[in-house]
């Protein structure tokens, strides 16, 4: 089994087919979208393929180390960045092909007008072994 991260980009990925921003959806459309996501996760939980998933707030802060005895440096919050990750899901599947199949299904979550969004999801495998460095 291999774990994969599915990233849902609100901004920064190629435009989806149903490209109506979520802030222009009706409350019913938002509810249908969230329910689709819950149902998808519930189904994967039953097959043992679901690990975790969360929606993310649009605000975020960059943080970095600034030296011994000094407080961390922060920059932000940035609600209007070019790339905005709306949420993520971790799946644990038998193959890359299964991960692609599930990402494609998740991409069909309904959006404006109840139509599938056909959004692009970023699919990334977890690093299982540290890279080998040779000189």
Automatic annotation (TrEMBL):
Q: Which InterPro entries match?
A: Dimeric_a/b-barrel (IPR011008), YCII (IPR005545)
Lineage: superkingdom = Bacteria
**Pfam families assigned to the protein according to its UniProt record, in alphabetical order:** YCII
Domain YCII-related per the UniProt entry, residue ranges: 15-107
Family to which the UniProt record says this protein belongs? Belongs to the YciI family.
Entry protein name: YCII-related domain-containing protein
Q: What is the native source organism of this protein?
A: Nocardioides soli
